[in-house]
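Incident log, support desk, overnight shift.

02:14 A customer reports that sequence design results differ from what the structure should imply. Their input is reproduced verbatim below. On-call engineer (initials T.W.) acknowledged and began investigating.
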């Protein structure tokens, strides 16, 4: 009896094993993980990138790269005209890495030049990463006042990197400079080209001084690449002596008053002295005549007395 049960159970076990094998072999493969999309602006030396520059992304520590092209100063930004751009996810069923995995560091290149931008790969993410290469400038703008009033048009505005002879100029418009919304032209100091042996622009931390038509203002600021800074300028157009910090005539006005006072005193003393001398001379000239007059008067009195006395003749 037991033999019959075992004989019947054997085919059933074989059927179960066969069905299990079919289920395993027929199971669909694991679907691939979604990619990570990237997009952003691209600037070269502070200006929007021209079309068709190569944008390359690489997974750090590997030789895996993907590339796209710039369009209207962007990459991967379909709303701005550039093509969608992404890194696919790694296929775990293959022996070699062929895509991104969560946590991978992504590096960015513009026409082969590595940027300072990096990002982390994340499945099913859309990440904006703006790219810039080349020495980025620092923009400046603001109001300009002269003697408390808005500056007239076409006054020269000069920005100087302190400690150098490097300077850049623009002109005023509607009492402003570098303020495009107010009608004045965009104004910036370019970034220094670090590959050049000579300094030809600004680097972060450089002090920038400002002049209005050659007159130094009290305003200064720090150069910061890729930033836009408002610096309102004010100046008094009274001639300045920058060596002693102000107008010599004005700052030493008390000396002029002292000098005028001394001149007046000396003149008065000379006048009084001359007046006294003239009086003395006149007295000296009149003295002989007075002496003669007194002698004549005395003689007259003597004569009169002689005539008035009677003679004592007998």
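02:41 Re-run completed on a clean worker. Output:
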């Amino acid at each position: 009896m037991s033999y019959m049960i075992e004989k019947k159970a054997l085919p059933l076990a074989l059927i179960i094993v066969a069905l299990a094998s079919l289920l395993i072999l027929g199971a669909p493969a694991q679907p691939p993980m979604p990619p990570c999309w990237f997009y952003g602006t691209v600037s070269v030396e502070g200006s929007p990138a021209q079309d068709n520059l190569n944008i390359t992304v690489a997974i750090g520590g590997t030789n895996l790269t993907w590339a796209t092209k710039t369009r209207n100063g962007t990459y991967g930004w379909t709303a701005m005209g550039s093509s969608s751009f992404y890194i696919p996810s790694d296929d775990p069923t293959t022996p070699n890495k062929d895509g991104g995995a969560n946590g991978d560091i992504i590096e960015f290149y513009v026409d082969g030049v590595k940027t300072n931008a990096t990002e982390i790969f994340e499945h099913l993410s859309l990440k904006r990463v703006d790219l810039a290469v080349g020495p980025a400038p620092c923009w400046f703008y603001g109001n300009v006042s002269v003697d408390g009033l808005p500056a007239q048009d076409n006054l020269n505005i000069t920005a100087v990197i302190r400690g150098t002879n490097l300077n850049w100029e623009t002109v005023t418009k509607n009492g402003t400079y570098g303020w495009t919304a107010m009608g004045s032209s965009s104004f910036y100091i370019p970034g220094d080209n670090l590959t050049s042996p000579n300094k030809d622009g600004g680097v972060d931390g450089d002090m920038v001084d400002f002049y209005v038509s050659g007159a130094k203002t009290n305003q200064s600021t720090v150069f910061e690449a890729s930033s836009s800074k408002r610096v309102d300028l004010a100046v008094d157009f009274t001639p300045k002596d920058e060596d002693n910090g102000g107008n010599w005539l004005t700052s030493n006005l008390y000396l002029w008053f002292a000098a005028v006072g001394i001149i007046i005193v000396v003149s008065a003393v000379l006048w009084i002295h001359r007046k006294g001398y003239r009086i003395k001379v006149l007295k000296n000239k009149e003295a002989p005549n007075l002496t003669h007059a007194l002698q004549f008067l005395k003689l007259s009195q003597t004569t009169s007395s002689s005539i008035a006395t009677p003679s004592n003749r007998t």
